[in-house]
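[retry 2/3] 2',3'-cyclic-nucleotide 2'-phosphodiesterase/3'-nucleotidase: previous attempt timed out, resubmitting with same input.
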Amino acid sequence: MKKIIVGLSAALILIGLPVSAEKVTLTMLETSDIHGAISPYDYATDSVTDNGLAKVATVVKSERLKDPDLLLFDAGDCLQDNLIQEFRFEKKNPMINAMNTLKYDANVLGNHEFNFEFKTLLKEIKQFKAPVLAANIYKKDSKRFVEGWTVAEVKGVRVGIIGITAPHVPVWEASAPEHYNNMTFTSPIEEVGTALSEIEGKADIIVVVAHYGLNGEFGEHGMGDVAEKYGDRIPVFFIGHAHDVVNQTASSGALIVEPGAKGAYVAKVTVELDNESGSWKVTSKKGELLAVKGAGIEPDAEIEKLNKSTHEKSLKIAGKVVGKIKDNFLPSLWWNGLEGIPTAAVQDTAMMDLINKVQMDNATLGGKKADVSMAALFESYSNLEKGEFHKRDGVKIYKFDNTLFAVRVTGRQLKAIMEKQAGRFFNTFRAGDVTISFNENMRLYLYDMFAGVDYEIDISKPEGSRIQNVMFKGKPLNDDESLILALNNYRFGNLKSEGMFGENPEYRDTSLAVRDMISDYVAKHSPLAPECDNNWKITGYEFAPEAEQVYALVHDGKLKVPASANGRTPNVKALNVNDLRAQGLLK
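[retry 2/3] 2',3'-cyclic-nucleotide 2'-phosphodiesterase/3'-nucleotidase: success.
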């Protein structure tokens, strides 16, 4: 029993008749950051997974048996990753087709929806059957790009739904402003207030569905701050973008939920209302995170049947043989066999050297090749092993559809970039440490390794002064040296927005996808042998003598390398003999 009123136009889509009652229970479900995961399969690793929209569908349908009138929202980033972007030119996008089958009530645009051609996005928006929302995106004529809010009437209660998109798309897509058509993205904390003033009086209860995390980025307020400011008028915030698992209440009383990523969870909110006073009032609310991953959930047969052709095509695309790899490009996936510490993050490897070499070979400026390059290890499981090289292996070692840029920098600017992108990634070494650990507040994909210069990262020193002994062509790098730096479009956009290149930098967008260039390089040099120049190393540490004893505890399963609470950053605290003795784990 639902009807939907969309935005200011108040267009009415009648689905059922409202029911009058003194007390009502509303159920609302949220998904977010599905990232192309329809069937439970990862095409990069060629492996079955325990998540995805097909399994989410099973949970949603089960919940609908309990409450046929529940509302279902998606907080964005569904149309990128896991090869789904390969199907964006088809008449019907497979992800949208599957989501339409699940009958969502609102879809919010995520930042990754702007990764590709703007005309493709326009086509995809039209394919969604549910209202597509983003209150904080404005066209050049000062009108919203899509509706900012919608109202769904359920059981006689008018539910207002405000949509918000991460405001930093112009930063992340700085290299390709045509992807977002040079539109303006406003502050979530301000735009929620604007939308609230528009929707109040038209809704009995208002919720926000936001593709933006609890904590903000680039100095912008996050949704935690937004919930604090408007919690007295907006009781529930469904958020996404950060891939976090959140179920908490702000001091304002607002409930905030986030269901992780790729369908690992479904966020569920139950709200009790009564209208004994003549208007609907929230009397209680409860948030839950319904587990999909690890919960023994079977994929929904309807979604699996719908996705069968796309799944088979994806397997074929991912399995295409591009060339051969002569030997392993990593000495081991995990440093010293300690699961959770990626070898490629703590020492130079042939795998990262390959990515940087490909970038340096293809990034040119003024007819000259790049002098230096910077690249990140996007996933801790990234590896390049002996044998056939498939298209999926390119995805495995270079996850994103980034394009290659070349920008002119000075030696001084490069050193500052190195401090920001590499120096601050590591925690300061403590006496008793037996491992090198990572900054919990810096994701692995934000940490860059550099080629074309030799350097050391001294983790005994404080942040800002860790990059030492930077050498270029066998000599100390001068601050006024002019260099061409190769990097991807996302990193270029972020660093440019922070002024790391100075005013009006000289740069060139090659428009070439880094991932495709890696595959082309492997094909051209097949069978490709690993080469590592060991141009950088970590210094400023001396492990405790009991290191091997601690490693044995990890190998025996008695101790784990700690990860961040959300699991997105590995190895966030060093294993330390003093800590382990205090815990009684080491004699």
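[retry 2/3] 2',3'-cyclic-nucleotide 2'-phosphodiesterase/3'-nucleotidase: Confidence is low (pLDDT under 50) at residues 8-19.
[retry 2/3] clearing retry counter.
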